[in-house]
Write a structure and sequence with these properties.
The chain has 127 residues and is mostly helical. Helices cover 80% and strands 0% of the residues. The longest helix has 32 residues, at 60-91.
Length: 127
């Protein structure tokens, strides 16, 4: 849903600004690659955590991987929240499109709360 929606929104913005190739789909390959990398890294951390002995602490590499993942995810969400969504929302006139952006902003807020709430449990479980 997000890829098709964002391509449509970008095409609409191009058309309103009179830019060439207004109907060409937006190149969202970078976002798709970044999302794939985040999913891949989370999967690797999940696999590493599943192999840990509950009585032993997590190796420093696993803890460092978790810290790096959290930093990457926070940076990505902050960039979208601070730079992408406000600009995009300001360009939209359709109430449905604006509601879609608002839904994504709310989703980021909820996911940040879940990650922050879960982090202490992860640290306890692996240390």
């Amino acid at each position: 849903m997000c890829q098709a929606w964002s391509e449509g929104v970008v095409a609409g913005l191009r058309a309103r600004r009179g830019l060439s190739q207004a109907d060409a789909p937006a190149d969202v390959s970078f976002m798709r690659a970044l999302h794939a990398a985040l999913r891949r890294n989370l999967s690797r951390l999940r696999d590493a955590a599943a192999q840990l002995d509950g009585s032993a602490g997590a190796p420093p590499t696993v803890l460092a991987g978790w810290d790096a993942f959290r930093a990457q995810l926070d940076n990505h969400h902050s960039a979208e929240d601070d730079d992408l969504w406000p600009v995009l929302r300001g360009e939209l006139s359709d109430p449905g499109d604006r509601a879609s952006v608002d839904t994504m902003v709310e989703e980021h807020g909820r996911s940040r709360l879940r990650w922050r709430a879960w982090t202490p449990h992860y640290a306890v479980a692996v240390t």
